[in-house]
Design goal:
The structure is a single chain. The protein is of the alpha+beta class and about 130 residues long. The chain is built from 4 helices and 6 strands, in the order ααββαββββα. The chain has one domain: Roll (Nuclear Transport Factor 2, Chain: A), CATH 3.10.450. β5 and β6 form a beta hairpin. The longest helix has 20 residues.
Amino acid sequence: MAGENSLLARWHQILEAGSKPGDLNSILSEDAVFHSPVVHAPQKGRPLVVAYLVAASKTLGNESFHYTREVVSRNVAVLEFKAVIDGIEINGVDIITFNKKGMITDFKVMVRPLKAINKVWEMMGRELERQQSS
């Protein structure tokens, strides 16, 4: 897909700026889908995807978070990341699918090992509850 580097550059800019809801809205299609490593059902629609991405940013977005590898093929990017939360090393992958307009249509997160998944589940749950009560 032409322009994949600029699409990823925009994702990195938004991430570095704190994953603000308005910024995320600008790169997500209305029918975007988020696949969480801890929630069985896909989360469908821009508002839910924004909520999950903001919660993920607040959960994982500390000074230890960094992408270690990027693989791009046509309209899909696979970004491997590492982070440490409460002494637990987290290794994960973001699989991002873009449409022809350059908007994210699908965002899947996979995390390992099991204790990392449990920590992410605990912290994301708290963050999503906090968002709902705001």
